Structure formats: structure tokens, C-alpha cells
Amino acid sequence: MPAPDTQTLPLEAALRAELPRIADEEGRIPPERDLAARFGVGRTRLRRALAALEGDGLLFRRHGLGTFTVPPPVPGTGLRSLARSVTPGDVMEVRMEVEPALAALAAERATAEDARALRDLMANTLTARSPEGYEIADAIFHFRIAELARNPLFLRVYDQIRSIREQSDWAAWRGDRLDAERIRELGQQHQALVDHISAHDSAGAARAMEGHLLSIAHRMRRRR
User: Fold this and answer.
1) At the topology level of CATH, where does 79-223 sit?
2) Within its chain, how far is the Cα of 19 from the centroid?
3) What is the pLDDT of residue 169?
4) Distance (Å, rounded) from C-alpha 208 to C-alpha 224?
């Protein structure tokens, strides 16, 4: 291991102490020219000190954005950008992780009145007369399950997934694959899910949701 740079070490310590004061609300520190002037050092020496702090995990650099004291946002992760870049398969992978857990929590926390109202929403998916009608009923049904989990952070995660689906061509991609028989099949899967939630069967609700999503994913793979 190379010997420590005795000139850099005092600067590194000074930077370390000043980071909480010089970072803005997003954790971004001033540009190198401003830091060099602030600490009265050359840019080369400053860069060595910044690199040392980055190596210690105290700084994070993002090209085009700057240097941060916290992990900066990944470029291009706004909803519109994500909706353009993700595939239906990407969405299903995330749904498979999130929605069974939401169903389990809904089974734990739903009241009898909640379960009755959810059953009414489920009935709308069973009786949908068109792919478009099913998509609307399905979206409302799944969102209500997310609400019944009664976890605002989980709901926010689910809503982000829903928003990405709405901003992509998801509905158009799946709509032409929803005939009357398939709509009935999916509605029956919803019915089994509501039965588990009504019975406060968390494990059963999670399995039912997982099976429902696997059914959709399987059809997606067959249609590629």
C-alpha cells in the first residue's frame, strides 16, 4: 500500500469536517474551483483529497451532476423515462415481488366491510364485457388491495408501478389478448384472492396473488 500523502491528509480531514456544512439540500458539494478557493489549495491536491473521501464512501460522483455526500439520483429514472425503457416483463418482475406482500397485508388488516367492498370490485372484473372494461376494473381492484395493506410507503411503490404501466403501451400490448374466456379466468383468480383476504388468510392471499401474476406472466412469455 502506498504511503499516505502527508500534504493531502490535513486537507482530507478539513473536507471531512466541512462536508455537512458545504453540501446543499440534495447533498451536492460545491464545484472543484470553489472548493480549491475555499481551502486555498490547488485543484490537483484537492482532487486527491476528494478521491480519498470517495474511496472511504463519504462522497459519490455522478458525471454531469456533480459530487454528493449521499448517493445521487440515477439519471433517467423519472417515470416518463422509465415507461419508455421498461418492458412488460420488467414490470411483471417487480409486481411479483410487491403484490403478493400487499395481498398478505390486506388479508391481515382488511375489515369485514373492506372485504365486502373488495368483493364488489372483484365482481366488476368477472362481468367485464370488453378488454378495455376489464383493464379498468382490474386496475381499480388491484389498487384497492394495495390500499388495504394500509402501508403508505408500500402504496407509493405500487402507485409508481401503476403510473409506469399507464404511461407505457401496456394496455395496448395486453388488450388484444383478453378474450371473454380469459377475462372470466382472470376474474375467477380475483375471486379466489378475495376469498383468502376475507378469511384473513395472509399466506393464502399471497399465494393466490402470486399464482394470478404467474398466469399473466406465462401468457406473456407464450405471446413473445
Assistant:
1) Four Helix Bundle (Hemerythrin (Met), subunit A) (1.20.120)
2) 30
3) 60
4) 25
